Automatic annotation (TrEMBL):
This is DUF378 domain-containing protein. The chain crosses the membrane at residues 5-26, 38-56. The lineage of its organism: Bacteria, Bacillati, Bacillota, Bacilli, Bacillales. Keywords: Membrane, Transmembrane, Transmembrane helix. The keyword Transmembrane helix applies. It comes from Paenibacillus xylanexedens.
Length: 68
């Protein structure tokens, strides 16, 4: 569930960054697409969620090993 939240949040952030950084003249001149920004940031959110999950699980395993 957290993965989807990160993907949606990062995708929304990509849209915000795109609108903030690029002037419409620049977007039209270079044929930029908002969806590309959304997808790139959503994939970054997916990678972030996967890495966070791995680090969290590794910490749990280490804590279980210390307890025994």
């Amino acid at each position: 569930m957290r993965t989807f939240i990160y993907m949606i949040g990062f995708g929304w952030g990509g849209l915000w960054v795109f609108d903030l950084m690029y002037h419409p003249y620049f977007v039209n001149g270079y044929h930029l697409n908002r969806m590309t920004s959304i997808w790139i940031y959503a994939i970054a959110g997916l990678v972030y969620a996967i890495m966070e999950n791995k680090i969290w699980r590794r910490g749990q395993i280490q804590n279980e090993q210390k307890a025994t």
